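Ticket #4471: structure output looks truncated?

Reporter: J.K.
Steps to reproduce: submitted the chain below (73 residues) through the standard prediction queue, then opened the result file.
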Amino acid sequence: MKSPKPYQFDPMDTLIASEPAPPIYGAKNNTKSNQHPPTSYEMEVLRRSEEDIKAGRVYTQEEVDIKVKQWLD
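Returned output as attached by the reporter:
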């Protein structure tokens, strides 16, 4: 039997990364001003992450939950 999810919302209802955030308290939705060009370090981290994903060096959410629980205990 699967354990219940530790969150109360459906992840499919959340925003997708490429979607602009809705305006809050009348603020204009200007995503350009909120973005910054990635640094060379950030780009290197992204490249290594893509290599890890392609090589299968990933954890499922269940595995992460177990490791976090072990770390916190």
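Triage note (M.O.): checked the attachment and the full token line is present. The first helix runs from residue 31 to 34.
Status: closed, working as intended.
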